[in-house]
Amino acid sequence: MLERTLRTLNMVESIKGTMVVSRDSAALSLARQLGAQTLQESGAPELNASLTMATQVVMRMNVSGVLLIASDIPLLQPEDIENMVAMAKHPPVVVIGTDRRVEGTNAMLIKPPGLFPYEFGEGSLEKHRAAAEAAGADVYVYQSPTLGLDVDVPADLDLYREMLIERELHEPGWLVSV
Asked: Which of 7, 159, 162, 173 sits between 20 and 30 A of 56, alpha carbons compared?
């Protein structure tokens, strides 16, 4: 899924660079092979701290925004990212790509980066929305079945298989291009 995520991001013209944060050396090696910068996690695993560290690194590169995206989104499409970017025209702005339950955050575009602390985990959609509003940003929520499906539990894999079969019946070759 990491490879697919990186290949999908590489297809989006407005994405100028990617960075993968991980403690897994194989994941970091794969990321570099696919043109991503990498950042080795250290210390105890803590997603929000790792993402904050990565954001601080890219902020030194004078980026206009940061897109945080999970790598467990097997149906992610370039259009998902393009749609989120299109929603983020006038900073300060935050676009939250929600999970299928409309509770969590599968992707988040923040312009400018560093507006508020990250709150990934249970109930993150509302936590991120509240933090972004408190920081004075316009907030938009992006929903799509392809961005919304993340693989957290075995039932998510079953749903993924069902969605693939359904898509293939209606749109043969749908995922072949990635």
From this structure: 7
CB atoms < 10 A from the CB of 123, how many?
A: 11
114's tokens: 């560093």
Give Cβ neighbours of residue 124 (< 8 Å, ≥ 6 apart): 103, 104, 105
Q: Would you say the pTM of this structure is higher than 0.85?
A: yes
What is the amino acid identity at position 135?
A
Q: How far is CA 11 from CA 1, 17, 67, in A?
A: 15, 11, 15
Helix (H, G, I), strand (E, B) or coil at 44: coil
Length of the chain equals 178
Give per-residue pLDDT as tens, 119-175: 999 999 999 999 999 999 999 999 998 999 887 766 766 666 676 656 655 554 544
**Which run of H or of E encompasses 32?**
helix 25-33
For residue 142, what are the contacts with CB-CB under 8 A and spacing of at least 6? 80, 83, 84, 87, 95, 96, 97, 98, 107
> Token pair for residue 95?
């676009």
What's the rounded Cα separation, in Å, for the pair 139 and 135? 10
Distance between CA atoms of 131 and 88, rounded to whole angstroms?
A: 17
Q: Which DSSP category does 127 fall into?
A: H
The Cα–Cα gap between 22 and 82 comes to 25
